[in-house]
Design goal:
The structure holds three protein chains of three kinds. By secondary structure, chain B is an alpha/beta fold. Chain B has helices at 16-30, 57-69, 82-86, 90-99, 114-121, 137-151, 169-180, 209-213, 237-244, 274-277, 285-303; strands at residues 47-52, 73-78, 104-109, 125-131, 158-162, 184-188, 204-206, 218-221, 259-261. Chain C is built from four helices and eight strands. The chains are: A alpha/beta, B alpha/beta, C alpha/beta. The complex binds zinc ion (ZN). Zinc ion binds next to loops of chain A.
């Protein structure tokens, strides 16, 4: 099966392409990219080729979200690997990496293999498991990194929880580095954040909710940078939410350290002010921060301090969120809104198109050592087609994800993934798109 | 002026006119408690549910007396927060209660925002009887009523609130209420008990008790919760009381006719010395209790209007 | 735009005063003096009238007759149906009603429901020997079996008219008016 995508603008930051071109997919790979493919293809073997006309659309390398929670095994009412992968392709993501905090935790080969098998059965997005740093993510004993790597993990993290023991984190970073696995750090000093429910500041004060100070994150970012420097290894900082973290990472990068970082759409879109109605759909960890933090997060995206946008997809059931704020679960079901929210960064001139696309494809691919994130001839035919003009309204009831927990429900959006191709096969197409 | 609110969730949401209306209505209700027959038929046939997720004999009793003096039927449901763990959520409970068709639900909960959750889900009027460290509107209203009676006004007074501001819903509701009514509010407590950015609520903040007491017309002492000691919020009761206990000496810094308030229950000798707490020339603490019933009667009366 | 209502003055200052004087004499006559007699004005319309009656009775008999003020809102039978509550006034009866002859005073007697509420309220204060009713205007349309013992003026009215008693104590003029079509 051959597919020819024509009439669109193609953006590939890796090849420095930003032009109106055609692209031909064949046998799951990118076969050709160029200006005049349509004519020659038509004359040679028309009929055997599916030609998709995409005037006004933008073709980019398949988007990658390196921070998702798929809940299977163990909490399938929140999400399964299949429903999460369906949400991914609907949101324009061809690949996702899933965090190990399932039940049981992905801390050994058999869980990793289970996830890979379920993902293959779903046959939607590519799903890359992330293994736990410590057994049961309890922060005391390292897992079998090497064994899990052979089973298919592409990174290590105890996400959901920090690794509080600095010595254990040091060992993890040293060992992982020798295996070529990145360590993704959920930065939170739980002594400082303990019991906290939202950003500590004026709003936590008036709402009477226990605060999580910015320094709970920043102290840990600083620690991990120091370990990376001392051991000459690398670390990836997950979900950066504060101005202070951006400053620390910027400075570390300036000194040439192997530190990378991500932020999530809600950290550059929402502030703590949204919590005034005690609406639990805004409850996330790390918490929504101040306006000033949001401004600096945008700066960090703009100047390259923050390499990646990953949505920290955290689907939950109704009963996890429809409770008192204090008892509500943290997280946003983000895969199906992440791209549209990120497109705002182009509108408000924080990023240009190639920069945004790099943060959602090439950069996560590089950090996770995946052979993805580009439209080079011979690469996997993972492609996302975006309609930058399409206006739509978020309706959680239409989410493919089982998690309907989104603070963006009802929000007007502009721009959306309309066609998602994984390995040369169409996995998602907006119903209104004429194929 | 007519009262249009469906719920009383916090003083933050009330206008000055609404506060005045509640206070004036409550003044009219004070008289009923002095009658031989302390009961009027106003809310006959109305049902009021007291849903208490946090133990509180005095607030619950005050609401219950208020309801009974208005001839409403009251149902008390006390539930420890551990029932959340057992499986029945606040929402389950609320839906069950809604099916019983009460007119007002009074809720006290250890989780800030729980009354707001309830109010967003069910059509009945909700009165917040204290939610976590957020608000305790009926306490602030009765405090304002007490101050107004004793001082003839609220506007222009200096009110010092002393103690664990961070964990105090009484403090927050009073800061909102007293500021709206034109008082100047100052706070004092150890730095560990002063929540971040509290000064943005329009108050002056001190870590020294004496600075706050100077020329105060009203001193409001907050209860120190002994279990906070474990959280390293203060080193010891002994050290706390040495520096933050209101006593015969430091009260001289305040105005001569200063009144002393306390939301109760009092830790005598910790936040307030016994001779001050029991001295009727300063202490209006028992007055506060009396006003509490009138304020709650006023709110029940104003909220049970039937639908438009 | 201000709607112009058809307003008719049916009693002026002198008329009101003459009525109150007559009622004062009638009260004393019926009760053979002021022994055991107390006055209770109903908020808000009966308060000033009861104060004037107290003065008139004192003028006739000498001495001061006890006067109380009653807010009947808490005893109304339409309280659940009314949308939102009117502000409540203070009830002030600083004397015992036991074995007293209580003269309730209101400005306008209409459906009788206010008087029903007032009687219920009085009984919560004690056990009067007798309750009598004095009103300045009786406009008819009773919904309960209640009648006044002392009436200033019978004023037949239609249901779509409003009868308003203005008194200098709050409205800067003494007069009774009928307003049409409210
Ligand atoms: Zn995390």
């Amino acid at each position: 099966m051959k597919i020819l995508l024509t009439g669109a603008r193609i953006i590939d930051p890796i090849q420095n392409i930003d032009a109106d071109m055609d692209i031909l997919l064949e046998n799951g790979k990118i076969a050709k990219i160029g200006a005049d493919i349509l004519k020659s293809a038509k004359s040679k073997d028309s009929g055997k080729i599916k030609i998709i006309e995409l005037a006004g659309m933008i073709i980019v390398p398949g988007l990658i979200d390196m921070h998702t929670h798929l809940r299977e095994p163990g909490l399938e009412y929140k999400e399964t690997i299949a429903s999460g992968a369906a949400a991914a392709v609907a949101g324009g993501f061809t690949s996702i990496a899933c965090m190990p905090n399932t039940n049981p935790i992905n801390d050994n080969r058999s869980i990793t293999e289970f996830i890979k098998r379920k993902a293959a059965e779903a046959a939607l997005a590519n799903v890359y498991p992330i293994g736990a740093i410590s057994k049961g993510s309890t922060g005391s004993q390292l897992t079998e990194f090497w064994d899990m790597k052979e089973a298919g993990i592409i990174a290590l993290s105890d996400d959901g929880k920090p690794v509080m023991d600095a010595a254990l984190m040091r060992r993890a970073m040293e060992y992982a580095y020798s295996l070529g696995l990145p360590v993704i750090s959920h930065c939170e000093d739980t002594n400082l954040s303990g019991g906290g429910l939202m950003n500590e500041g004026y709003y936590s004060t008036i709402l009477g909710l226990r605060g999580i100070p910015g320094i709970a994150e920043e102290a840990m970012v600083a620690r991990d940078i120091l370990i990376a420097e001392f051991t000459n290894t690398c670390v990836h900082i997950a979900h950066v939410s504060t101005a202070g973290s951006v400053r620390l990472i910027r400075e570390a990068k300036k000194r040439g350290l192997k530190v990378t970082a991500e932020t999530a759409p809600h950290y550059f879109t929402l502030t703590e002010e949204a919590l005034q109605s005690y609406n639990t759909s805004f409850k996330v960890n790390p918490p929504l921060r101040s306006e000033q933090d949001v401004a600096v997060i945008k700066e960090g995206l703009s100047d390259g301090t923050l390499d990646v946008i990953a949505c920290d997809h955290a689907p939950h059931g109704r009963t996890d969120k429809e409770v008192e704020f204090e008892y509500a679960a943290n997280g946003i079901s983000g895969l199906e809104t992440s791209l549209s929210l990120s497109l705002n960064l182009i509108q408000n001139k924080t990023l240009n198109w190639p920069e945004l696309i790099a943060k959602m494809s090439a950069n996560p691919a590089r950090i996770l050592n995946l052979p993805k994130g580009t439209l080079e001839v011979g690469a996997d035919a993972d492609i996302t087609v975006i309609d930058p003009q399409l206006k739509w309204t978020v309706d959680v009831q239409t989410f493919r994800s089982r998690g309907k927990n989104s603070p963006f429900n009802g929000r007007q959006m502009q721009g959306k993934a309309v066609l998602t191709i994984v390995g040369g096969e169409i996995k998602y197409a907006l119903p209104s798109l004429k194929l | 002026m007519k009262f249009e609110k469906k719920d009383i969730l916090g003083i933050k949401d009330l206008t000055v006119d609404e506060i005045n209306l509640i206070l004036e209505t409550a003044e009219s209700f004070l008289e009923i408690s002095t009658r031989k027959i302390k009961k009027v038929p106003t809310l006959r046939g109305k049902t009021i549910i007291n849903l208490f997720y946090e133990a509180s004999t005095r607030t619950r009793t005050s609401f219950e007396i208020a309801a009974k003096r208005l001839s409403a039927d009251t149902i008390n449901i006390s539930s420890s927060t551990s029932s959340v763990v057992k499986g029945e959520t606040l929402i389950d409970t609320a839906r069950n209660l809604e099916a019983m068709n009460p007119d007002i639900i009074v809720i006290r909960h250890s989780a800030a925002g729980a009354p707001h959750l309830l109010a967003s889900l069910i059509k009945q009027s909700i009165i917040n009887a204290g939610d976590g460290a957020h608000e305790h509107p009926t306490q602030a209203l009765l405090d304002m009523m007490t101050i107004k009676e004793r001082k003839g006004k609220i506007s222009g007074l200096k009110v010092a609130i002393i103690g664990d501001i961070e964990h105090s819903r009484v403090a927050r509701s009073n800061i909102y209420g007293l500021s709206k009514m034109g008082a100047r509010v100052v706070l004092a407590g150890p730095a560990t008990m002063l929540p971040r950015n509290i000064e943005e609520m329009g108050v002056d903040v001190y870590t020294n008790l004496k600075d706050a007491l100077i020329d105060a017309d009203v001193v409001m002492m907050l209860r120190i919760q002994l279990e906070r000691q474990k959280q390293s919020i203060f080193p010891s009761l002994r050290e706390y009381s040495q520096h933050y206990c209101l006593n015969r000496n430091n009260i001289k810094l305040a105005k001569k006719d200063v009144i002393v308030m306390h939301p109760g229950p009092i830790n005598r000798g910790v936040e307030i010395s016994p001779d001050i707490a029991d001295d009727p020339s300063y202490s209006v603490i028992l007055d506060q209790v009396n006003k509490g019933v009138a304020i709650r009667m006023a709110l029940l009366y104003l909220l049970t209007g039937g639908g438009e | 735009m201000v709607e112009t209502k058809n307003v008719k003055v049916v009693m002026d200052k002198d008329g009101i005063d003459r009525c109150l004087t007559r009622i004062a004499y009638e009260i004393l006559e019926k009760n053979k003096g002021m022994e055991n007699l107390v006055l209770v004005g109903i908020r808000t319309g009966g308060v000033y009238l009861s104060e004037r009656l107290q003065k008139k009775i004192s003028g006739i008999e000498g001495g001061k007759i006890p006067l109380g003020i009653l807010d009947v809102n808490l005893y109304r039978d339409d309280i659940s149906a009314s949308n939102k509550k009117q502000p409540l006034g203070e009830t002030k009866i600083n004397f015992s009603l036991d074995d007293k002859i209580v003269v309730l005073i209101d400005d306008v007697l209409f459906t009788g429901r206010t008087i029903r509420a007032a009687m219920d309220a009085l009984i919560d204060f004690g056990r009067p020997k007798m309750i009598q009713l004095a009103v300045l205007i009786d406009r008819g349309h009773r919904e309960l079996p209640i009648r006044a013992d002392f009436v200033g003026k019978n004023l037949p009215s239609s249901l779509w008219e409003a009868v308003r008693v203005d008194l200098v104590e709050k409205n800067s003029v003494d007069e009774v008016v009928i307003e049409e079509g409210t």
